[in-house]
């Protein structure tokens, strides 16, 4: 299938300068923050959405979208149910790959590295920033497990809402929390004409980082 990209798409011209290794002189984090801001400014919906790849017990890849909820020198943070498929997979094989895809600004970032659960304090702080409804939803859903009907799911939400009442703080659901991916490899991709895209990859070797350009 051929899709017409129009003049602004992946293959379209851009007034932006070419991505180069120099832009990574201060490491992956400042450039990643800048690109995330570019995505926000461009009005991309859910600019912090990223495709999370994990492997299952057969070594098969599994992907789904999660929201990035923190970027720091330590890594990339998201929150989920630790007993979901992804949670179990990461417990067994604690290594993840995440990709941010920002088609309207012709940019993509992939981060790979070991994944670990964050402290209860970090989870607690984020949990309490979530709307009450989302906190109740996290209690109501046995994420990734089958359920017979939508009606049963709605009943589960009503049940937890009644259980907690209106004035009570909703505590962190057990086995719900943050996962931090500690970057080992970060690749920045910038779309260019004729599929001659710019790709700059930075990789960690102990506490040293190398930067290299990859062919598109
Ligand atoms: C835009 C978007 C953002 C999402 N963010 C999250 C998230 O941050 N955490 C989460 O657990 N699920 C999130 N989901 C739902 C997941 O994609 C997925 O369906 C769910 O986590 C179950 O995945 P699993 O069965 O592979 O564990 C999001 C879905 C979309 C479309």
Automatic annotation (TrEMBL):
A biological process term (GO) from this entry: pyridoxine biosynthetic process
Sequence intervals crossing the membrane: none
Binding site for substrate: 69, 126, 130, 134, 195-197
Pathway the protein takes part in: Cofactor metabolism; pyridoxal 5'-phosphate salvage; pyridoxal 5'-phosphate from pyridoxine 5'-phosphate: step 1/1; Cofactor metabolism; pyridoxal 5'-phosphate salvage; pyridoxal 5'-phosphate from pyridoxamine 5'-phosphate: step 1/1
Name assigned to this protein: Pyridoxine/pyridoxamine 5'-phosphate oxidase
EC numbers on record: 1.4.3.5
Entries under SUPFAM superfamilies matching the protein: FMN-binding split barrel
Cofactor requirement: FMN
Swiss-Prot/TrEMBL catalytic activity: pyridoxine 5'-phosphate + O2 = pyridoxal 5'-phosphate + H2O2; pyridoxamine 5'-phosphate + O2 + H2O = pyridoxal 5'-phosphate + H2O2 + NH4(+)
Reported function: Catalyzes the oxidation of either pyridoxine 5'-phosphate (PNP) or pyridoxamine 5'-phosphate (PMP) into pyridoxal 5'-phosphate (PLP).
Ranges for domain Pyridoxamine 5'-phosphate oxidase N-terminal: 36-159
The keyword Heme appears for this protein: no
Keywords, ordered alphabetically: Flavoprotein, FMN, Oxidoreductase, Pyridoxine biosynthesis
Any GO molecular function: pyridoxamine phosphate oxidase activity
NCBIfam families, per the entry: pdxH, PRK05679.1
Positions of the Pyridoxine 5'-phosphate oxidase dimerisation C-terminal domain: 176-216
Pfam families: PNP_phzG_C, PNPOx_N
InterPro entries: Pyridox_Oxase (IPR000659), Pyridox_Oxase_CS (IPR019740), Pyridox_Oxase_N (IPR011576), Pyridoxamine_oxidase_dimer_C (IPR019576), Split_barrel_FMN-bd (IPR012349)
Enzymatic class: oxidoreductase
């Amino acid at each position: 299938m051929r899709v017409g990209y129009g003049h602004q798409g992946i293959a379209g011209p851009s007034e932006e300068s070419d991505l180069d290794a120099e832009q990574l002189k201060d490491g992956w984090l400042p450039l990643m923050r800048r690109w995330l801001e570019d995505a926000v400014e461009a009005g991309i919906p859910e600019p912090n959405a990223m495709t999370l790849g994990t492997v299952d017990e057969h070594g098969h890849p599994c992907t789904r979208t999660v929201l990035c909820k923190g970027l720091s020198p330590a890594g990339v943070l998201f929150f989920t149910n630790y007993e979901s498929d992804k949670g179990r997979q990461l417990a067994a094989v604690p290594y993840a790959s995440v990709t941010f895809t920002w088609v309207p600004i012709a940019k993509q970032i992939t981060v790979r590295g070991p994944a670990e659960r964050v402290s209860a304090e970090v989870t607690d702080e984020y949990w309490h920033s979530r709307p009450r409804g989302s906190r109740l939803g996290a209690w109501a859903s046995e994420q990734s497990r089958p359920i017979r009907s939508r009606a049963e799911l709605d009943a589960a939400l009503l049940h937890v809402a009644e259980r907690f009442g209106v004035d009570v703080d909703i505590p962190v659901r057990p086995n719900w929390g943050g996962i931090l991916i500690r970057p080992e490899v970060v690749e920045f991709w910038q779309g260019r004409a004729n599929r001659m895209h710019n790709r700059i990859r930075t990789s960690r070797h102990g506490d040293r980082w190398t930067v290299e350009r990859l062919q598109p």
